[in-house]
Specification:
Elements (H helix, E strand, L loop, with lengths): L6 E7 L4 E3 L5 E3 L3 H7 L7 E9 L6 H14 L3 E4 L5 H11 L4 E4 L12 H12 L6 E4 L2 E4 L4 E2 L8 E2 L26 E5 L7 H8 L4 E6 L9 H9 L4 E5 L16 H6 L3 E2 L5 H17 L12
Helix pairs in contact: 3-8, 5-6
């Protein structure tokens, strides 16, 4: 009997698996085995299988639950090939609900490009999987911790980076090795503050059954005209996390006034710290999923100041 492969590849589609069709549009066509062949990896290097086959912009929470369950079932180093559009969200879910040596990678150029970046990224990811102890994203020669990662460029090879200030990763939400709590059925909406905004969208989200809200706020955490709706959400027991729509820097709720960050924080809004709105949403979803699975009151994890 041959020894088990040290690294498992779970492919989900994305640009790394895409080729151009007759109409020129990119669609995922390459399988996990194809990706390994493209990268010069053999079955002795990687045990390859397909978990999903889609564009990551179409990934649902149910799809993510299936992927998390597949990663959990492996029980060893895992590489996940994934579209870059929503990779930071999946990376956060992996970090908060699983942990361990999981490496996410993808590509900015399709498999049939004259100079694809996917094969090198996959080789780097397989190498990293043998040494990392926690979830990371590997692209363009860079390795970035999953907690705090964000897509920083739409086309550059080094697609992902981290915050410009250190991130204090909070305590795990679950015991290592625990099965991931399901996310499907929860709803957390991201709402953006802008000049002239009012609370219409906040109220619409609440009417739609939002379990939580993330605000992509002005500057360091000011919400302007969204504030009355945020107050109604907090009064209804719906958690609200303040992030910033600005590319760099975090939330520092120091401004007063009706929509100021300090006013909202005093009313109970949480800070997303340096997390992107997308990652803060997934962080909150993971907290809610764990609390739903075990309703014993817990102190919410995540940046709180």
């Amino acid at each position: 009997m041959s020894a088990p492969s040290p690294v498992t590849l779970l492919a989900t589609g994305g640009t790394i698996a895409c080729t151009a069709g007759p109409d020129g549009a990119l669609r995922p066509t390459r399988s996990a085995v194809d990706l390994c062949t493209d990268a010069g990896l053999t079955p002795d290097d990687v045990a390859a299988s397909d978990a999903l086959h889609l564009d990551s912009s179409e990934m649902t929470l149910a799809d993510l639950d299936g992927l998390l369950a597949a990663i959990h079932a492996v029980g060893g180093p895992v590489v996940v090939t994934h579209g870059t559009d929503s990779m930071e969200e999946t990376a956060m879910a992996v970090d908060r609900l699983l942990g361990g040596p999981v490496v996410l990678t993808g590509a900015q150029r399709p498999a049939d490009d004259a100079s694809p970046d996917g094969p090198a990224n996959l080789r780097d990811a397989v190498t990293a999987a043998a040494t990392v102890t926690g979830p990371v994203v590997v692209t363009g020669g860079a390795t970035v911790p999953a907690y705090g990662v964000r897509k920083v460029h739409t086309t550059a090879d080094r697609a992902f980076g981290g915050p410009d200030s250190p991130v204090d990763r909070p305590a795990p939400l679950v015991y290592p090795g625990s099965a991931p709590a399901p996310l499907a059925g929860l709803r957390v909406d991201i709402l953006t503050a802008y000049q002239g905004t009012d609370s219409t969208l906040v109220d619409a989200a609440l009417t739609a059954g939002a379990d939580g809200l993330v605000i992509a706020a002005f500057g360091s955490g000011n919400a302007g005209g969204l504030a009355p709706g945020i107050g109604r959400a907090l009064d209804a027991g719906v958690p609200v996390v303040l992030c910033t729509r600005v590319a760099a820097g975090g939330v520092d709720a120091v401004y007063g006034g009706d929509g100021g960050g300090a006013t909202l924080a005093a009313a109970g809004a949480r800070s997303g710290g340096v997390l992107s709105p997308a990652q803060a949403r997934m962080e909150l979803l993971c907290q809610l999923a764990v609390q739903r699975a075990d309703p014993t009151p817990v102190t919410p994890a995540g940046p709180q100041d």
